Amino acid sequence: MDTLQGGCTCGAVRYSVKPGFRFKLYACHCTDCQTRTGSAFGLQLAVFPADISVSGDTSCGEYSAPSGAQVKVFGCSKCLTRLYTTNDRNPLAAIRAGTLDNSNELVPFAHFWVGSKQPWVIIPEDAAALETQPRSPEDWVKLLGPQS
Ligand SMILES: [Zn+2]
Ligand SMILES: [Zn+2]
Question: Which backbone phi and psi does 6 adopt, to 5 degrees?
């Protein structure tokens, strides 16, 4: 397992993720992710926050997820690229995987909330496609992880 490197658009914030527990990559097609990202889906890599090292000034935004969880979004203070989120009901942080330097090599293992995906997004046949998303921590582990 490699250390991952990533950063924001303007270069003021860089981060790395040291080897450790990582879920496989997933894409979320829920309408909240579409709104949050301003795009067609969220692409997320779940890791422990303690494995993330950040350099540069970040700002933190907050919102309530539909589940009621309080989510904190960390992004570059200068260019507002969002880098990762944490959640008060989940010990893992979600890296916005498009900010990783090797994002061109990343392929989502699973797709969530496919009922609300944009109609032009075609899910590859070999990827897991869920109408919703895993509910319990056990279901998350069963489907997505951990990477070795
Ligand atoms: Zn920036
Ligand atoms: Zn979502």
Answer: -160, 180
What are the pLDDT digits (tens) for 81-126? 999 999 999 899 999 999 999 999 999 999 999 999 999 999 999 9
Residues with CB under 5 Å of ion ligand 1 are 8, 10, 12, 76, 78-79
Report the pLDDT value the prediction gives residue 136, as an integer from 0 to 100.
87
Task: Give the number of whichever ligand sits closest to the CA of residue 117.
Answer: 2
Phi, psi of 17 (to 5 degrees): -125, 115
Can you give the pLDDT at residue 44?
96
- Number of domains within the chain: 1
CATH number (domain holding residue 103): 3.90.1590.10
What range does the domain containing 105 cover? 4-144
What lies within 8 Å, CB to CB, of 104 at 6+ separation is: none
Element (H, E) at 52: strand 52-55
Cα(85) to centroid(ligand 2), Å: 12
